[in-house]
Design goal:
The structure holds 2 protein chains of 2 kinds.
Chain A: H1 2-35, H2 38-45, E1 48-53, E2 61-62, E3 68-69, H3 71-84, E4 90-95, H4 100-105, E5 111-117, H5 120-124, E6 128-130, E7 135-137, E8 139-144, E9 159-162, H6 167-178, E10 184-187, H7 191-199, E11 205-209, H8 210-218, E12 226-228, E13 236-243, H9 247-265, H10 273-279, H11 283-288, H12 295-298, H13 305-313, H14 316-323
Parallel strand pairs in A: 1-4, 1-5, 9-10, 9-11
Antiparallel strand pairs in A: 2-3, 5-13, 6-13, 7-13, 8-11, 8-12
Helix pairs in contact in A: 3-9, 3-13
Chain B: H1 8-11, H2 27-59, H3 90-123, H4 128-143, H5 146-158, E1 174-176, E2 179-182, E3 184-185, H6 189-219, H7 226-243, E4 250-251, E5 254-256, E6 259-261, E7 264-266, H8 268-294, H9 298-306, H10 311-341, H11 345-348, H12 353-364, H13 367-396
Antiparallel strand pairs in B: 1-2, 2-7, 3-4, 5-6
Helix pairs in contact in B: 3-4, 3-8, 3-12, 4-8, 5-8, 6-7, 8-10, 9-10, 10-13, 12-13
Domain ABC transmembrane type-1 (chain B): 98-389
Pfam families (chain B): BPD_transp_1
GO molecular function (chain B): transmembrane transporter activity
């Protein structure tokens, strides 16, 4: 009996201790999630956790060796290159259109680089910060060549396949309302399944961003059997995003993107960047590549950050050329501003 | 019961009270301390989770609350039992989702019960082929994951020809990868009245059957019920329909543009989900029915045979009513399973509550509220099924004295 009483008091003491610990723990942990920066957490961990698409050719897809490749993936690699000069220190987390935001909100990933459209509500009520537009896109339709459809307006009465949880879904209904078009939606979450439904003929048309359509079309056995209609029904500025409050991390992402564009403007490529760092006399190049000034420090990284980034992934044009040209996308609005496009970088000083 | 005796010593119930001692050896004190402790721990865990969540949501500037339910949804929904278009609110969209879940759950439960009972009886058949086929069905269906079966059915339905080459087995019925199209009639108020008359007729038939049975118990004469039933359930609606001018305009599906217009349709998504859920759950129900029938004492069969009843009649009148007592409780679990499994609809694009709530929480970013709504909906449906089945179980339970 005495032994029992002893163990009971000990247990009680343990519970009391746990309870006393729990109270300040609750007070401590919650602000910690907000104030300790994600950048610190990434440095402490020694690797970046990057949320990418589940598999979209050209943007993010594992190759035959299981190595992730693509336009969005190169942005993750660029961050790792800027931080550690080691593009392999990235862990990729495939996310669906539906679970991507929860993954970022909950801290499961550090950032999303997953062809995500920048919208007002995502920027505010979802609690994110978009760090720039690395791809100007728009929503379009793909149909079978045999259907004899010329423009999107011919789609009245059609069945249209769409992925849920995207701006695509809302653009589609907005467009149909504005143009008085009746359609039957088929809403399937997984990219493979929704494409399969379109290919099998369950739907007359498949709608998503034109870049996604091009990617899907290029992955078909006979791409010439599918036509991307000329109509673009929405603006889809795509870019990486981080959680609200991660200003330092957002700055770094923003300036990596501008660095890629700036490098293209100045003609710096993966091949010539080392030489440019050593001998290029243009002051902006010297500042960008860290030979003069302290731009890297200001971003809390090494002064050679952009040198490492360009050496790893190349400039914006090279990233585009390597990933998106093979799936049939042209530069279009994503050309440099000097070539009549929209890609423009603020000055490096 | 207490007033049966006037002895004042028995009026105060229980043993004499003893004051609680402030000592650990006092049993009642220990009980109170433990209870306060347990409630306190559970309460503080809940409070901690809650406050932490609210705080984190604030820090991340994520909007909270259910205000979004009134906002315009803007999400397209393929099939709906009530009027819906994307200008309606999220609340309306979620209601459509709940109704879609109920549509597949209710029809699924009924069909699975029928199919499962038939297969369960077939397994007990004296015919070797029938019984082995039933066993084979049960083993194959029960051993394959449901998700796989759903994808299987959906792929098969997608393999049907396009609308322009649609199969046309009977005039007016079209089978294509857009689903099944059936002819229907243009629905007018007259049809609503006729339907109402049929319901009234069914109630009348039930009352008539009750009265006739009471008479049979009184004088032992069996009476025919079907003539009155036919008159009430078929004749009455026809009269009501005729009184409203007998409107009848067939609405036959026809290919116009991309798709069929007119008639009613069953989408491949709904059909695949229903097919998958029914065939899968029927495998389990069959085993429950078989076990229930075998639980009835062999003597019951023999006694009924001795009275000269036929096998089918014995099953219907003697064995099944007794087997139901064994069957109903596990059956409740199967109904709950079927309802919850319907959430796998997401995989094949049927827009049930999970699909629509997922899209909603994605568009509004309010994941906690969205998940809470899904939980609330399933909890309500499941508790309703449980309540109904418990009531039914109590009704058919053996009345013991």
């Amino acid at each position: 009996m005495k032994a029992l009483r002893l163990s009971v008091t000990r247990a009680l003491g343990g519970v009391a201790l746990a309870a006393s610990l729990a109270a300040p723990l609750a007070a401590q942990q919650a602000p910690a999630a907000g104030t300790a920066t994600t950048l610190d957490a990434i440095r402490a961990r020694g690797s970046l956790i990057c949320g990418v698409n589940t598999g979209l050719a050209g943007f993010a897809q594992p190759d035959s060796q299981g190595v992730w490749r693509g336009f969005d993936v190169d942005y993750c690699r660029a961050v790792a290159a800027a931080l550690w000069n080691d593009a392999s220190r990235v862990r990729y987390v495939p996310t669906t259109a539906q679970n991507r935001f929860t993954a970022l909100q909950s801290g499961e990933v550090d950032m999303l680089s997953r062809n995500t459209t920048w919208t007002l509500s995502r920027d505010t009520s979802l609690g994110f910060d978009f760090t720039g537009i690395n791809f100007y896109d728009g929503q379009g339709f793909m149909v079978k060549a045999s259907a004899g459809v010329r423009t999107a307006r011919d789609l009245n009465g059609a069945t249209i396949c769409v992925q849920p949880g995207t701006t695509t879904e809302q653009n589609l209904t907005d467009w149909a309302r504005a143009n008085r078009i009746q359609f039957t939606p088929v809403v399937i979450e997984q990219l493979n399944d929704v494409v399969q439904a379109y290919v099998s003929g369950r739907c007359d048309a498949y709608t998503t961003d034109v870049s996604g359509l091009a990617s899907t079309r290029s992955a078909q056995a006979r791409p010439q059997e599918h036509v991307i209609l000329p109509d673009v029904i929405s603006k889809e500025p795509l870019g990486p995003l981080v959680r609200h409050g991660d200003q330092r991390f957002a700055d770094l992402l923003r300036w990596i993107h501008y660095g890629l564009i700036g490098a293209e403007e100045l003609g710096i490529t993966a091949a010539n960047v080392a030489q440019a760092a050593a001998s290029d006399q243009r002051p902006e190049v010297q500042r960008m590549l860290g030979r003069t000034g302290d731009l890297g420090r200001m971003l809390t990284v090494d002064n050679a950050w952009l040198l490492n980034v360009i050496r790893t992934v190349g400039n914006y044009g090279e990233v585009f050329e390597r990933n998106l040209v093979p799936i049939g996308l042209q530069r279009g609005p994503n050309a440099l501003w000097t070539n009549g496009g929209l890609q423009y970088s603020p000055p490096f000083r | 019961m207490s007033s049966s005796t006037a002895d004042p010593r028995l009026a105060s119930a229980g043993p004499p009270r003893r004051p609680i001692r402030l000592s650990w050896s006092d049993e009642r004190l220990r009980a109170i301390v433990w209870q306060i402790l347990v409630v306190g721990i559970v309460g503080s865990i809940v409070w901690w989770l809650w406050s932490n969540t609210v705080h984190n949501l604030e820090v991340r500037r994520i909007a909270t609350g259910f205000g979004f339910l009134q906002r315009e949804a803007g999400l397209p929904i393929g099939e709906s039992l009530i009027d819906y278009d994307p200008t309606h609110s999220y609340l309306r969209a979620l209601t459509v989702g709940v109704l879609n879940t109920l549509k597949v759950a209710v029809v699924g439960v009924i069909l699975a019960t029928i199919l499962g009972t038939l297969i369960g009886i077939a397994k007990l058949s004296k015919n070797w082929l029938v019984s082995k086929l039933a066993s084979f069905y049960i083993e194959v269906i029960r051993d394959l994951p449901l998700l796989l079966q759903l994808l299987f059915w959906y792929t098969i339905l997608q393999g049907l020809p396009g609308p322009r080459q649609a199969l046309n087995p009977v005039d007016g019925v079209f089978l294509s990868n857009r689903g099944m199209k059936l002819p229907w009639i243009e629905w007018l108020p007259a049809h609503n009245w006729a339907l109402l008359a049929m319901v009234a007729g069914a109630v009348g038939t039930w009352a008539y059957a009750r009265a006739m049975r009471a008479k049979q118990y009184a004088d032992g004469q069996p009476r025919k019920i079907w003539p009155a039933g036919l008159a009430l359930m078929v004749g009455l609606p026809l009269v009501v329909w005729a009184a409203h001018g007998a409107p009848f305009t067939p609405d036959i599906p026809a290919l116009r543009g991309f798709n069929f217009r007119g008639g009613i349709s069953i989408s491949p998504e709904y059909f695949a989900l229903l097919l998958g859920l029914v065939t899968y759950t029927a495998g389990f129900i069959a085993e429950i029915v078989r076990a229930g029938i075998q639980a009835v004492n062999q003597g019951q069969w023999e006694a009924a045979e001795a009275l000269g009843m036929r096998r089918a009649e014995i099953l219907k009148r003697i064995v099944l009513p007794q087997a139901l007592r064994v069957i109903v409780p596990p059956m409740t679990s199967q109904y709950l399973n079927l309802t919850k499994n319907s959430s796998l609809a997401v995989a094949i694009g049927y827009q049930d509550i999970v699909s629509i709530a997922n899209t909603t929480l994605n568009q509004t970013g309010q994941a906690i509220e969205g998940i809470a709504i899904i939980m609330l909906v399933y909890l309500s449906i499941s508790l309703s099924i449980s309540l109904f089945m418990n009531w039914y179980n109590a009704r058919i339970a053996l009345v013991e004295r």
